[in-house]
């Protein structure tokens, strides 16, 4: 997705940057247009499948609720 919007929506997903060896393998597979990007991240297929199938809650951002401080100022 564009400019990390996937990771902003699902920060609990596992990701890592592609290695130069993996970049070469993409080129060997004929995916040359994809290796032009400077930052390519790899995701776990099982996590992507979870999100596609609607089991996304465990990857979503946890909403933070504001509460009043315990100690008076």
Features:
30% helix; two-stranded antiparallel ribbon; alpha+beta; single chain; 3 helices; 2 strands; 73 residues
Number of strands: 2
As a percent range, the share of helical residues equals 25-40%
Based on CA atoms alone, the radius of gyration comes out at 18 Å
How many domains make up the 3D coordinates?
A: 1
Return the structural class.
alpha+beta
Low-confidence segments, ≥5 residues, pLDDT <50?
none
Characterize the largest beta sheet: strand count, sense, and whether it forms a barrel. Answer: 2 strands, antiparallel
- The number of helices is 3
Average pLDDT: 81
Strand content: 5-15%
Order of helices and strands: HEHEH
| End-to-end distance | 44 Å
Oligomer: single chain
């Amino acid at each position: 997705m564009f400019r990390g919007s996937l990771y902003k929506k699902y920060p609990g997903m596992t990701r890592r940057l592609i290695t130069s060896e993996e970049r070469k393998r993409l080129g060997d597979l004929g995916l040359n247009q994809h290796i032009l990007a400077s930052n390519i991240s790899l995701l776990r297929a099982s996590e992507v499948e979870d999100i596609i199938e609607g089991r996304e809650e465990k990857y979503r951002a946890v909403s933070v609720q504001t509460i009043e401080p315990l100690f008076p100022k």
